[in-house]
Amino acid sequence: MEKENIAVGLDIGTTKIVAMIGKKNEYGKLEILGVGKSKSLGVARGVVNNITQTIQSIQQAVLEAENKSGYKIKDVVVGIAGQHIRSIQHSDYIIRSSAEEVIGGNDIQLLIDQVNKLAMLPGEEIIHVLPQEFKIDGQSEIKEPIGMYGGRLESSFHVVVGQASSIRNVGRCIQSSGIELSGLTLEPLASADAVLSQDEKDAGVALIDIGGGTTDLAIFKDGIIRHTAVIPFGGNVITEDIKEGCSIIEKQAELLKVKFGSAWPGENKDNEIVSIPGLRGREPKEISLKNLSKVIHARVVEIIEQVFTEIKDYGHEDPRKKLIAGIVLTGGGAQLKHIKQLVEYITGMDTRIGYPNEHLAGNSDEEISSPLYATAVGLVMNSIENNTQSAVRMDVVEAPRQAPRPPVFQAPEIEEEVETEVVVNRKKVVSTGEKISRSFFDRYVDKIKDFLDNAE
């Protein structure tokens, strides 16, 4: 029987953990075989802060994906995010021993290995080394140097750096869940793979992924990654503001934001009121939708302004660096009503909502095409590039796992259903809840595995 290239991505977010199993169909599109989702417990702003709870949440998502797909997961590509991520621009060169021979992949690998030896701040490690333009014997703006002659090979690099302890904690959680880590990818890069077209990357585009705990930014120009940043604010701070501003519990604040929230206060009339049931026999609370929008608007403006500062730092105002394709919004936060209009108003740039259906097979479930799953889809695509056999059919599993998983912790569902009463125009309506060097990656993942094994 022909070996299937089954790929698995694991998105460890602040709000949710998603395990996604997929493969390429005969048309080269991504066919999703199973998705598991659990409420993320133990992760704050993209960083693990409770190992036990994170392991339980991962196990629940993995188990659900396995049951839906009929495949047993062996290893995963995981997304890395968090406020500890930073990126630097760096240039380096090598002098080749023989300028009479054409440049090959091993020369580029040598250059990348050299960059990997860069001295970092204590406790930091390099996650990605992304070559940009190359220069051969002073001739610049070369995108593909392989096959050319030259003695001095030089390149500018986009280097992504993260905290070693945070990365190892993620590795520990995955290994303790009974699965292996096959690769690491910066989350905004995974989201970009899922929602951006090549034309947009060439023209110049900023991808803004608004998650629960962080807002991730990736800027592309001339098909090359130019800038990445992670801003430590996301949808959860909006929920927190609603909770504080309206004096209600978090569950109700989240439901209010999703059902009735808008980033544009002018859209709501003064007499649109939501009635929230009181706690333990207390009187119901009445909240004006206009005031709700004002609270959301204030926080979203703050997040977008911080992202826009990063875009300006990249040099968007320079005509040669102009982002012609504008902004693409994705992630759960992109589902907020009127956020597209607000981003266009603040930045003056064309904006669209990014759905991860660019590479999905035509028969994919509509839910998977939501911006919520952009990172998970990108991670599965990354796993396919690795050519790993990340999962096997349940019926060909010869023996159960050596280390059986501990009992799965039943975390509450993300979408809580709370009955709310909406009063519109004083009429009551009842509503209920509705391409980098692979060998480097291999070595990097092996390094984490060794560290974890030795730490036993």
What's a quick, concise take on this entry?
Helices cover 32% and strands 29% of the residues. By secondary structure, the chain is of the alpha+beta class.
Structure description:
This protein has 456 residues and is α+β, with helices and mostly antiparallel strands. It is built from 11 helices and 22 strands. Helix content is 32%, strand content 29%. It starts with 6 loop residues before the first strand and ends with a helix. The model is unreliable at 398-439 (pLDDT under 50). This is Cell division protein FtsA. InterPro entries: ATPase_NBD (IPR043129), Cell_div_FtsA (IPR020823), FtsA/MreB (IPR050696), SHS2_FtsA (IPR003494). Residues 7-195 form the SHS2 domain. Self-interacts. Interacts with FtsZ.
What attributes does this structure have?
alpha+beta, 11 helices, 32% helix, 29% strand
The structure class reads: alpha+beta
Widest beta sheet: strand line-up: 3-2-1-7-12
- Based on the structure given, which CATH architecture of the domain at 86-163 is correct? 2-Layer Sandwich
Kindly, what is the distance between the CA atoms of the first and last residues, rounded to a whole number of angstroms? 38 Å
Largest pleated sheet: 5 strands, mixed
Q: What is the 3D shape?
A: globular
Q: Enter the CATH topology name of the domain at 86-163.
A: Dna Ligase, domain 1
Estimate percent helicity: 25-40%
Rg? 23 Å
Number of strands: 22
**Beta-strand content bin:** 25-35%
Q: Quick check: average pLDDT?
A: 85
Oligomer: single chain
CATH class label of the domain at 86-163 = Alpha Beta
Detail the poorly predicted runs: 398-439
Number of helices: 11
